[in-house]
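Quick review question:
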């Protein structure tokens, strides 16, 4: 049984995603995120088969971490990643804000798959706070 928490980097799937991204050279990470987010948006029907909500939330959080308001996300990355500096994008990626926000809304909008399966009201509320925070950062960056 895997770990699954309410934070953007609190699941095995999210941590695996970070590890895969960290294996790439820093200059290739933005392109990998661009590809992943584009894939999610053009292949919504492949959710649960090719990708999972926690991976999309982690990707959106990586993008959000590069913007003002994302400092807590950068700090959290230093705590959870095997090589923290390797998973942080080398610079802000404003061109990814729109696709990160759209992908986040797809998996974690009202009634979205990210919100299914939380067993306690506390977890439901914490998961919603995670999404609300990411959404606020990405909306500010997208405007």
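Suggested answer, residue by residue:
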């Amino acid at each position: 049984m895997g770990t699954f928490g309410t934070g953007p980097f609190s699941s095995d799937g999210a941590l695996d995603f970070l590890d895969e991204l960290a294996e790439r050279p820093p200059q290739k990470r933005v392109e990998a995120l661009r590809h992943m987010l584009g894939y999610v948006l053009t292949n919504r029907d492949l959710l649960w088969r090719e990708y999972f909500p926690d991976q999309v939330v982690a990707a959106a959080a990586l993008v959000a971490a590069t913007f003002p308001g994302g400092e807590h996300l950068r700090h959290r990355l230093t705590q959870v990643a095997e090589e923290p500096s390797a998973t942080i994008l080398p610079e802000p990626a404003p061109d990814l804000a729109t696709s990160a926000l759209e992908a986040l809304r797809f998996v974690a909008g009202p009634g979205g798959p990210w919100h299914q399966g939380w067993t306690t009201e506390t977890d439901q509320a914490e998961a919603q706070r995670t999404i609300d925070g990411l959404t606020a950062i990405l909306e500010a960056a997208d405007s």
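Why it works: The chain has a mean pLDDT of 89. Residues 12-142 form one domain.
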